[in-house]
Amino acid sequence: MGYKSLKSASTNGFQPLALRRRFLSAACFVVFAPAWAQESLYQRRPASADGIGKFYMGREISHVMGWQGASWLEREEREREERTDLLLPILALQPGMVVADVGAGSGYFARRIAAAVGTGGIVYAVDVQPEMVRMLEAQAQRPGLGHLKPVLGSTIDVKLAPASLDLALMVDVYHELEFPYEVLASIVRALKPGGRVAFVEYRAEDPNVPIKALHKMSEAQVRREAARHALEWERTANGLPWQHVILFRKK
Ligand SMILES: C[S@@+](CC[C@H](N)C(=O)[O-])C[C@H]1O[C@@H](n2cnc3c(N)ncnc32)[C@H](O)[C@@H]1O
């Protein structure tokens, strides 16, 4: 609200000195407000072993999994442990869909989504680590994977065109976003009206899931954070051994 009223003041024509001063301080506010506003979303406290010491809505953000962990993402037993074969049917992929795999890593899911949407569809495989993007580029060269498009995102923006996506998927990613509010806002912008976003996170509610606490998220926490955006909860699928799939639709 404050931002709007200051902006409209700047559209006045001739202004007396006092008004000009107000205009100048308004201009400073416009320049500096984003950084200031951004900081107020987050808190800094001493970091735990797996976290970065930055907190969002009561949880500590975890370290990003480095590109050196790509072989863990591609491990042979992953399908058996996580039943990754059951995840794709939950997403209801259709030929021709445009999907973003945000935090695509080594491309484990991007390749499988590319097969499901077919060459009439597109899979944007977004990551912030240039090493991961190079791995994705190598995969996009493989026969039949020309519609897998690697994208180097930034820590605050997935860098995808507005209203271009049917679905955005984040598997084991959201809890480690350094700027979760900003990245989710950029995803929502990139969704078509009615487009969906799927959070796949290790279940914090289940002590038997053998993953470090900061790399898990509860359904309630994901829903609280998503509620800050133009998203409505669609459903939560609990049929996977370790993860829940929490699906939202753009309002
Ligand atoms: C644990 S890996 C998961 C990879 C993949 N989703 C999978 O399940 O095989 C998390 C990935 O998210 C990426 N990541 C972290 N922050 C990101 C951001 N702001 N935008 C895009 N990717 C990000 C990391 O670089 C890493 O490759």
Report on the structure:
The chain is an alpha/beta fold and 251 residues long. It has helices at residues 2-9, 17-41, 70-73, 78-82, 84-91, 108-117, 130-140, 180-190, 219-226, and strands at 42-44, 51-56, 59-62, 98-102, 122-127, 148-152, 165-171, 191-203, 216-217, 231-237, 243-250. α1 (2-9) packs antiparallel against α2 (17-41). Mean pLDDT is 88; it is low at 1-36. The structure holds S-adenosylmethionine. The site of S-adenosylmethionine has 22 residues, from α6 and β5.
Q: Could you outline the blueprint of secondary structure elements for this entry?
A:
Elements: H1 2-9, H2 17-41, E1 42-44, E2 51-56, E3 59-62, H3 70-73, H4 78-82, H5 84-91, E4 98-102, H6 108-117, E5 122-127, H7 130-140, E6 148-152, E7 165-171, H8 180-190, E8 191-203, E9 216-217, H9 219-226, E10 231-237, E11 243-250
Parallel strand pairs: 4-5, 4-7, 5-6, 7-8, 8-9
Antiparallel strand pairs: 1-2, 2-3, 8-11, 10-11
Helix pairs in contact: 1-2
Bound molecules: S-adenosylmethionine.
